[in-house]
Every structure is written in C-alpha cells, then in structure tokens.
Amino acid sequence: MKKRFYGIKRLLAAFVAATLTFTAAGVTTVFAAQTVYENKTQETITRGVTYEKNSRMTTDGIQDIYVLTIDLTESTLELKEVESKTEYGLKETVQKMLTDNGAIAGVNSDFFGMAGTYSAGFGPVVRDGELVSAGTSINQDKNQYGTYVKDKNGNSIFTYFKTTVKFSNSAKTIDLASINKVTSMVFPILFNREAATSTADLDKRFDNLVKFVVQNNTITYISQKGETVEVPENGYLIVMSGDYYTNAASVFKVGDPVTLQVSSTIDFDQIDTAFGGGGLLLLDGQEAPATDIVAAGRQPRTAFGVSQDGTKAIMMVVDGRGDSIGATHSEMAALMKEYGAYEALHLDGGGSSTMVVQTVDDAAPQLQNTPSDGAQRKVIASVGVFQTAPKGEIKEIGITTVNQHTQPGKTAEFTVYGLDEYKNRIYIAPEDVTFEVVGVEGTWDGYLFQPTTTGEYSVVATYGDGLTAVANATCYPTARLKATYPDASIKNVGGTTNIYVTAYDTEGFGRAVTNDVTYTVANPAIGTMNGNTFTAKAKGSTYVKCSWAGQDTYVTITVGGASKVTAPASTSAADPLQQTVTKQNDGAFYLNITGELKYTGTGKVDATTYNAQRSRVRSAADSGADVTVYGGPCDITTPTVQDSLTWNGSYRFMNRDGASVVLLAASQGIRKTDPSQYGRFTQDIAAAGNDTIIFVTDKTPSDYPSAAEADYFRAILNKYVEDGKTVFVVSCSGNAYWASTKDGVRYINLPDLWRADGTANSNVYMLKFRIADDGVTYQPVKV
Length: 783
Fold this sequence. Notes:
Residues 1-32 form the signal peptide. By secondary structure, the protein is mainly β. Helix content is 11%, strand content 41%. The chain is elongated, with a radius of gyration of 33 Å.
C-alpha cells in the first residue's frame, strides 16, 4: 500500500509551524542520569517567543522538560506577574489566571501559603513600575526566597530581597507586616488601590478590622470595627485587627500627621518589574547554593532565568513524581544554563509546577505539562508573557483539524485561521477559503468535510492572494468496534447503565461512535435501550449488540446478580496489508521472521523431538525469502541456506532493500535492558531512510515493567507513522500468536517453539513479508 499524502506533506513542509527533532548523538551526562535520547518539538507562538517540549530518555527514566524562550528586545512583548482578576488574594489555576489577564503563555510563580482559598505570595511584586505588594517577613534572618528584579534601565537582577515598612505618628512607630499582602491579619498591613477599591472583600474574610484612612500624610478617618471603607485614590489604608488596634494602636488619632518609611534591598522607585520565587539557581553563570526551602532530590520544578546579555528570558517546567522523574537543584541549574540562562531562580515547584501556552493553533492558553497532583493546583500568582501588538493584516494562514483520523460515515472538521506578523490569531470565515483535497473524494459544509472514498488525503486551504496551508488526514474503513465497558452489572430493576463505543479503522485509529451505533437487546424482557442507555426491566442477563459500519460488538448486562450470558464474538475486518506472500522474481524484497527456536527452560526435552521440531521450523523459515530473521536464540549450528539475522539479546540492525529491521533487547524494558538502544535505533533508522520499519524484540511494549516507557516508545513509533512509514513491532515470546493494530502500528507476537515444560508448541507461526516500491504486505503462516 503506497503512501500518497505524506509525499505532499514533505513538499509542503513550509506550512508546518512546529518542528520535530529526534536527537541521539552520543550520551549526555545530566549529573547522575545520562541522556540517551530526546524528542523535541519547537514552535514560535508569537514573534519573539518560542515554546519547546523536550522529552528525554535518561538512564534514570523519562524527563519531560517544557521551555519558553522570550526575546526581551521585542518592544511589543511584556513579561509580568499577575494574580486573580476575580478577587484579590484568591487562589486560581495558572490557566485561568493567565487567560483572564490576557497572557499568551506563562508559568506559576511565587511561593504562597497552602491553607485556605486565599493567600499571598511571599516575594515583592512590581508591575509596570508600580509597587503592587511586598512582605516584610522573608529573608530577615537568612537568605531563603529569591526575587527577580528588572530595573527601569532594563537591567535584570537576581537577589534575596528584604523589605521593612514602618508607620509612625509623633507618639509611636509600628511595623507593618506587608504592603497589600493579606494573610492572617495578625499584624497591620498597608492596603491601597493596587489591591482593591474598598475593603469589602477583606471584611467578608476577617471580622472586626479597623482601618486608618491616610491622605496627604494625615490620618483622615479611623473606621469602626468591621466597617467597610473606600480606599482613597491618592492615599492608602492601614488595616489591622480590632484586637491589635485596642492593644497597640489606639494612640493613633484622626488628624495625626504620619510618616511611612519603606526600606528595601533595591529602591522600589527604581524597579520596573519584580516577582518572588524560591532559592537562586544560577549566579554569574554558576550554580548557586540551594537554600533550605529548596526541596531535596528530584522534584517537579519551575524556574525563571535571563541570559548573560539580558536579551532573553527563559521559563522552564520539569515534570516529576509521575512518568517524568523530575529534577534536582543541580540538574535544574544545568538545564537552565543549557537553555541560555546566566542567572536564574526557582519558582514554586512540586504540585504547583504548571506551564500553559497558547500556540498558533489554539484560541486560548492550554495546559502543556502534567502537574503532579493530577490536575492544576490553585496558586496565588503566575508569570505571564503578553503580546501587546494589536491584530494586523493577515500575513499567513494555518489549518487545524480535530478529526485527523475519520471513517466512512463520519465527518472531519477543519479550521482555517489567519496570522499577522506577530502571529496574532485572526478569524477567517469558511466561505472565504478555497479547499482542495488530494487523495480522496468528498463534500464540504463550511469547515466540515465528509469523505466519500477512503484513503490518506491532504487538505490544501487557500485564502486571499495565494496564502496557503495544508493539513493531512485519513479516512480508513472501519475494522472493528470496541465497547469501553464490555460487561455491565445493574444491581436493581429500574437501574441504568450507559454504553460507550469506539470504532477502530484498519490502521488502528479510534473514533467515538456512541451516538451513531444501532443497539439491539438480545432479550428485551430484561431491559430496553434509549439512545446509549440501558434500563433494566427484570432480573436476569442479556447482551446488547452494538452495530455500526458493518461491524458488531457486544456488551453483556446482568441485573440483580444473575449469571452472565455468553455473547457472540465481535466482528472485524481483515488487515489490508495481510495478504498471501509467495516469493516471486519481481524485484521485491522477501523477509521471513520466526520466533524463538531454542529451548531455554529447565524441563527435560527429548533429543530426537528437539532436533526434528527445530529442523521443521527452520526449513520453513529458511525458504521462500531473501533473508530470515530468527526472533530469539537459535542453537542450530549448521549454515543457513540464505542470509539470516539472529536475535541474540543485544541490539542489531539490518538495512536491506527498503526495510529497516531493528532487533531490540527489552526483557526489562528498553531503558533498563540497554538504554543506548534508543539512540542507536533512531540514528540507524534515520540514516537508512526506509519506508518499512520492523522491530523484532523479546517483549512487546504493553508488557514493559514501566507503562510510562511503553507509552514513550509508542510515541516514537507514532512519529514514524506520521512521517509516512509502515511500522511493525514483532515480539517473540510465550505460546500464543496474536496481532493488533493501534495508531498505525502493527503489533504481532510470534510464539516460542517450546513450552515451559519442554514439550513442543503446536501453535507456532512465522511471518512472511513482501517489501517493494508499492508498499509492504505480510502473511502469518502456521508452521
């Protein structure tokens, strides 16, 4: 089966905004871990800002790294810390906070108190040259919490910031806990219009607060306890608890002249931007000592840094406590330095670590990383990147689809959008776009495309004066249906259960068809269907036949603890690549693959049977092909009739006539068995450039000890599929033959010749491949 539209993809690669890079050149040391392979995607999200995801396989596990690089010389870009627009001091997710404030990207920022719905960041906040907030408790006894400062001359400074605030009349001086940082209100704070226009929200949170209204350096009003007051436009409030006022501040009176003394590491009047974080990471290009508030070991982490010349800012998140191993303090410093930072600091990490980005394909900022809590934590502040340039003339267009893989009877939805010189996204109506489809036939309804034939296709969208973009998609025939829950149990009559069905095409891509399926109850006396909902009418059991696109699957349902009935087997269509393979003199390359022929168990094997069985299978494998691959240890010492390659527990590679054959050792997963294989097979496959890739291995990915590594390996395979390659993973283990197709990759298991007890396995298969310019076909043959 010849790939068609992927050739178009390569020709029109200039339309693709994101770039994908496989890197496997040598081994990079990351302190205790070594990087053996990395998969990077990078794209420009607006002029002067790039977003990169780098998923690294290291000797210690997967390390997922997310990086924003911001050009600080771009006049239309702004970088600033933001907080909730809903209510001052309210904790919200990074995504909501940045979206509400109009940012295009950003990360979580300052440390904060975890308890409760409200909190305050620990570090100072200066935004657009105005002091928003500052606390007086941090770094007084020792340096712990770092701060980033950009002064009004554009200089970036990373320091341990200290602030003190004193409020005095002629009789007394009191120390203020903060400017606009609202925590427990044990001590007085200064409160101005950078926080709110009145104390209404404060008074909902705290009882009996007393407020001094200060204008022109004079107390003009002292409120009653709990009284809500307006914040003066040209002044401020001193807010305190009723008890503090009674016990320590009653000497302040209306009409008193007062002074406010603010002392800080750097004069606030000289600061354009400031926000707080954790300990410093880099100073003068070298790793800074970790302070005692920096969590030890590998953790999820967020960091911010600036290049030596001050022209670039780097925001980074490293996932941890899950599939990704996280980073130590030293590893984070090294990563920030690798990406161009000269000075840097930790931002809040752990479950707070979050990055959101609005790419050119997105209408709003989207979560990019995987927070360790399983969902976004509500935080107090975020550092956002803002594009201030107004939307201009469309300079280029893009196209996206939410249904890249569809099936006959289902539509694919495409969206075309414009981008100006700053990559601001601009709406384009479907009637203003001309579509050309290459590869299949079909009809358009606005942005909805209904294929009427099957295959791979490209959609070329044209707008205005020749602006063009391309999207690639497929419409393969439906191969099988699968119910999400094939067995359901209802406790009582009158109870219900919902049925959800996915249709998989011949290349293993799934599409939800729950609302398209025809549902038929085998025994209507037990229950009825309404849409996809089954309602029990009587105690007993039945099954529901789910039909769509010529395929059926079944869901068994029991009511009231009844025994389950046996449902028919689901139907499926044949794999179009599975055809009879007979060696011809036609210029094609013929390849045979067998499972393991050597007995490696501890049982007793009859010598005569042992030799006869091995010879029988080898004779079949050693004929009708140009090359035979033995997918496991083979202890036959006589020469083969034709070329052969034997799996021997270590990496091997064969480049032959359009096929790349990779022998992988993965008994403990690839990483623990031999992590260097990642770099070797990606390099070898890239150098060979073949359209057919066949992995032969001792363990299928679904049996890896680490599910995360299985997903990581599959992601690499899926990239090959996206590039138009035909990919097989042939595992050789166990006593059963099976085959499945998932996301364009064919997974096949060839059983061993011998059972564990030393008896011959009667269920032995081999694979026969034909590989030619017109594509690849294969045939499983029982030996």
